[in-house]
Structures are given as C-alpha cells and as structure tokens.
C-alpha cells in the first residue's frame, strides 16, 4: 500500500472528462486523492502524439495512467513509456463496455479472457517498477459474477498484480449502451467484500454508484457482508459535484483541506487558466470542468450559464472565471 499513495480515495478515469485540465482542478481540491488519466490505447501511445496523450502538470501526482489494450508486448512497451513519463501507476482497463473497446478486444470483454489478462499483467510487471493495477467489472453478459470475478482475481494475483479496482456492476456488452451500463446493471458491493476476504493481502478498491463522502467512508469499514475495503473510487459524483473533493483530505487522510472554500479553489486555478489562455487555448478547455462546483447553491445556475456562454467566445480571457464566481456568494454570506 505504501507504493499506492492516495489509493484510499481516487477519482476514476473518465473518457472526455479526466483530461489534464480536469486533473489540475481536482488536485487543487485534494492534495492526497489518487488521480487517473483518461484511458489511452496502446496503439495511440506507440504511434501517436505522446506530448498530447501523456503530457501532464507536475502538480497532478499521485497520478495513474490507464491503458487500453490486450497485446502483452504492446502493453509492456506502453507501460514502460508511461513509467518513463513519470506516472505513478499503470492501470489496465478491463471494465469499459463501449463498442470501440469491444472491436479492439480490450476493456470489459477481457473479463472473458483471464489467462490473457494475466499474461498482459505479467508483461507489464516485467517492464516497469511502478505498481501495475487492473480495473474491472464483476462480469459481463451472462457470466456468473462469483465465478468470473474470482477467476480473474486468481489469475491476477498469480501474475503479481499490485491492486484491483472493481466496478461493482456487470457490463452488458449486448443490449445496453455504455451510458446504460453505468446505471442499469445492479450494484453488488457484497461480492467485492467477499473478494477481499478471499485475498486479504491484495489492495482492493471499489467503484460504482458511490455518490457521497458518507457512502464512500462506509465502504472502508467492515460490515456484515465482509471486511473493510482498501480504497474507494468515485467517478461521476466527483466530476459533477467536485466540491465534495474538498472533504477528502480531512475525512480520508486526516489532513487539512487544501482549500477552505470553492471560491478559494477557483482563485488558485486562475494562474493555470491564464497560462492555458496565453498558450492560445480557449478557456473553455479548463472551465468546462468546474461547472458543477457550486451545485445546489444560490447563483450556481448563473455561474454555469456565464461560463458556458462566455468561455467559448473568440478572445475570451481568464477573467471570465472570476466574473462567474462573483455570481455566487461565499458560503459565509449565504448563511448570513
């Protein structure tokens, strides 16, 4: 666990969302949570623009790179490249249910091929010294989760995997869209606790449907279903209501919050936003990730509307963020 800094609470890899700008913003809200890149395919890393695909700010650590692929040689090469770029963990995606990953023979369909996944992890482990982890589902389609998940875990433990992150739902590759796969298959947290009971020495984090800090904290406690889990991973909740990340350091790591308020976080984001704009990019590249920051507060709608309309205009400056933030009163003034 010492090598998996921040594993106790992490923000999930989310395609089109957890890009480098999003991660810088999230890091301002929590010093300790582990952050993950969007999934990057081995083909993109081996043949694409690595500066664009792998570039990040040094403030983002601890930071994991999630890979998509199923060829052990390509995964080993990509893992080595990721480690050379300074990523703190290499994660293999065995949970994404999109058509794209099915056509490429990676993602959730790998749940059907535990021997291949084991071979991939062994190759990655041989290539790098940073932790190699796997993110998976509890099964796909008509698989029996108790058999599928435990069979995969057995092979991964034998391959030396450093940790397992389990999205506690099945993925239905036939009949459900990727969006539906995030909500419709029922959650089964108990099976993840049973997995932890089977492999007490393996760090296991749980993902899926965790919407609040309280719910996340409960999963780190033993209950009637089984032992405490080692980590929780939040996805959409952390993205759509990023203010909850302000509670992560105090409640999960016994450390002071990195910022005392949402307004302070945005003020700390300003130098980064100014740099992005100075490099010729639209402020929207950054501000699109902060829209949910004031969720439920008076003025939040005006904040979102201002950023959504002004950030995309030609010549927009970083000051639009301050202008939008001024539309929401600080919490102390709200209470008054």
Task: Describe the protein in words.
By secondary structure, the protein is an alpha/beta fold. The chain has 16 helices and 8 strands. It has helices at 20-29, 42-47, 50-54, 72-84, 99-103, 114-127, 145-159, 189-198, 213-219, 236-240, 248-252, 262-278, 284-287, 300-310, 319-325, 331-335; strands spanning 9-11, 34-41, 63-68, 89-94, 132-136, 163-167, 204-207, 231-234. It has an 8-stranded parallel β-barrel with strand order 1-2-3-4-5-6-7-8, surrounded by 6 helices. Helix 1 (20-29) packs antiparallel against helix 12. The longest helix has 17 residues, at 262-278. 47% of the residues are buried.
Layout of helices and strands, plus pairs?
Blueprint: E1 9-11, H1 20-29, E2 34-41, H2 42-47, H3 50-54, E3 63-68, H4 72-84, E4 89-94, H5 99-103, H6 114-127, E5 132-136, H7 145-159, E6 163-167, H8 189-198, E7 204-207, H9 213-219, E8 231-234, H10 236-240, H11 248-252, H12 262-278, H13 284-287, H14 300-310, H15 319-325, H16 331-335
Parallel strand pairs: 1-2, 1-8, 2-3, 3-4, 4-5, 5-6, 6-7, 7-8
Helix pairs in contact: 1-12, 4-6, 6-7, 12-15, 14-15
């Amino acid at each position: 666990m010492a090598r998996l800094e921040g594993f106790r609470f992490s923000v999930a890899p989310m395609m089109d969302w957890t890009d480098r700008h999003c991660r810088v913003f999230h890091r301002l809200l929590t010093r300790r949570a582990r952050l993950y890149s969007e999934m990057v395919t081995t083909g993109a890393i081996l043949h694409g623009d690595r500066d664009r695909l792998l570039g990040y700010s040094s403030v983002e650590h601890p930071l994991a790179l999630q890979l998509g692929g199923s060829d052990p040689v390509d995964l080993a090469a990509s893992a080595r490249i990721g480690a050379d770029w300074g990523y703190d963990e290499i994660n293999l995606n065995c949970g994404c249910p999109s058509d794209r990953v099915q056509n490429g023979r990676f993602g959730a369909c790998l749940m059907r091929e535990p021997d291949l996944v084991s071979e991939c992890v062994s190759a990655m482990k041989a290539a790098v010294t940073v932790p190699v982890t796997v993110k998976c589902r509890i099964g796909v389609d008509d698989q029996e989760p108790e058999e599928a998940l435990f069979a995969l875990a057995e092979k991964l433990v034998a391959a030396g995997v450093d940790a397992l992150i389990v999205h506690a739902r099945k993925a239905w590759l036939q009949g459900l869209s990727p969006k539906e796969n995030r909500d419709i298959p029922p959650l089964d947290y108990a099976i993840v606790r049973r997995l932890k009971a089977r492999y007490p020495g393996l760090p296991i984090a749980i993902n899926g449907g965790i919407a609040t800090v309280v719910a996340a904290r409960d999963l780190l406690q033993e209950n009637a279903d089984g032992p405490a889990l080692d980590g929780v991973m939040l996805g959409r909740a952390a993205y759509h209501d990023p203010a909850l990340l302000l509670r992560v350091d105090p409640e999960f790591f016994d450390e002071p919050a990195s910022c005392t308020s949402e307004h302070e976080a945005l003020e700390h984001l300003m130098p980064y936003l100014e740099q992005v704009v100075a490099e010729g990019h639209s402020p929207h590249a950054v501000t699109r990730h902060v829209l949910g920051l004031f969720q439920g507060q008076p003025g939040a709608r005006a904040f979102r509307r201002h950023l959504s309309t002004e950030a995309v205009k030609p010549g927009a400056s970083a000051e639009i963020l301050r202008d939008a933030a001024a539309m929401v009163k600080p919490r102390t003034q709200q209470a008054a």
